[in-house]
Amino acid sequence: MKKAIVIGSGAGGAMAAKMLAQDFEVTVLEEGKAFHPFSWSLDKLAKFRKSGLYFDERLIQLLLPNMRIEKTPEMVMVYGKGLGGTTTLATGNAVRADEGLKKIGIHLDEEFDELYRELPITTEHQRYWSFITKKTFNVMDEMGMAPEPMPKLLHPKGCALCGHCSIGCPTRAKWDTRELLEGMKVITGCKVTQIEIGDRLAKRVHARKGMCHLTFEADVIIVAAGGMGTPDILRNSGIDCLPTLFVDPVLCVAAPMPGVKQNRQLLMPFVCRREKYILSPYMDWLSFFFHSSWCHPMEGIASIMIKLADVEQGDVHGKKMQKTLTETDHRYLKNGVEDCREILLRMGASEKEIFLGTINAGHPGGMLPLTSAEARTLHSSKLPENLYVADATILPQSLGLPPMLTIMALAKRIAKIVRTV
Ligand SMILES: Cc1cc2nc3c(=O)[nH]c(=O)nc-3n(C[C@H](O)[C@H](O)[C@H](O)COP(=O)(O)OP(=O)(O)OC[C@H]3O[C@@H](n4cnc5c(N)ncnc54)[C@H](O)[C@@H]3O)c2cc1C
User: Fold this and answer.
1) Residue 224: which of 378, 371, 68, 9 has the closest Cα?
2) pLDDT tens by residue, 195-215
3) Which of 36, 69, 87 to mutate to test the pocket of ligand 1 (most atoms within 8 A of CB)?
């Protein structure tokens, strides 16, 4: 049987591995370890907010090692390192976001149809919506923003409505790619450093596991180490990437509303699409613990997220992000803030009490963007024949939308192509 190596176990990697396992002996190499959700009591930790202990977002990594934080002066980048990649930290939104792909001639209808059949995608959570969620929905509806319930990768009956989706679902009601990897050969704690290339073929994968240097040979290699991991592996292997990093920055606008308990709701229960950004209710834990304006009790904050499709410019080197938001990005964020202010005022907030959160981002990608010339093969001419990239790195433009489903659709198509060549 032919062998395939898949690097990374997140949205792209796990889906590619699952698909390839039908014809290949697949080994998944994952830098992180098994995922464990955040197990500390947020209520107890909240008591220390005034102590000055929470001075840097990177401290989260001590309590939740599968969450990685990278900072620039302007924003905080969050991504996953561990089995399941960033999907374990995702809020489970399953949105088709393939406008940019369609523009360059990539049509993934068949793959999206398969995903809708195979995965637990549902809007059934509506019956669990609390008073504050319904109120926010109604206000946005009255404002003509056309809110839609968010399709979720969720087994709704298991949801404890704890609001912990983005720090690890404690009941596993939220689906993540660990479900695809059950029964597969996965080597965790194995960091790929380089792919050795010769005669226009990828020959060997070099990796580190603890103190050991490991090498793996395979007929096909799929790189899916995510927007923060893949560019380093490619560049170490002599393959150039572009400084076209996008991150879909998020900014939350909030107001004190005593007793509304938004923190006890599914995060992002519905969505409004605006030009270049979306709006959705979101309890922003990062800002709650690390931003000085978020000093109200957690059950007394109503917060709305702006998620922006940013200008594709920026870079990653050694998992360090270089990125500044452009004037255009700031203009759209400002529009979003105005929308949120209006919503919160209509919900009864007082103008002077509205506050903003920390700009954070969780959708890195775009540094080896697909082009129309690659629409059929989904394979960059920069890559050797038997090496594919199947993660957010190949998305041609920022989305301002949850990318997981679209990455999985791409990974499915890539695996189908690999199986037929
Ligand atoms: C808080 C948060 C909430 C989110 N919510 C949603 C949501 O609701 N819906 C949605 O669609 N998207 C959401 N996202 C984004 C989504 O999770 C990611 O866009 C998606 O998982 C990216 O898939 P990927 O395959 O590109 O990379 P990832 O899922 O990040 O997987 C990459 C994997 O590669 C591993 N890796 C990295 N480097 C190496 C190496 N050198 N060797 C071996 N392994 C390596 C990493 O450890 C990781 O496991 C969210 C993100 C965050 C941070």
Assistant:
1) 9
2) 999 988 999 999 999 999 999
3) 87
